[in-house]
Amino acid sequence: MKRKFSDDATMDEIMHGSPAAIRVVLQRGMLCVGCPIASFHTVSDAAREHHLDEEKLSYDLRTAIARTDSD
User: Fold this and answer.
1) Do residues 54 and 48 touch, judged by C-beta distance below 8 A?
2) How far, CA to CA in Å, does 18 sit from each of 10, 21, 40, 54?
3) What is the mean pLDDT of residues 8-29?
4) Residue 5 domain-assigned?
């Protein structure tokens, strides 16, 4: 089953859907893991909060999730 996410998915939903997403978040020094705001922030919100490129973050999350799905 493919674990894709929509643009309005929260960071919490994305991380719960795929441990690979957690790895991406931690590698970028983001504090989403365990953060109470993660259940409200979308990728766009989180990227803005952490001064990251939204498109790159979204791409990296989707790529990591897709790799996990293909294993």
Assistant:
1) yes
2) 13, 6, 17, 19
3) 95
4) no
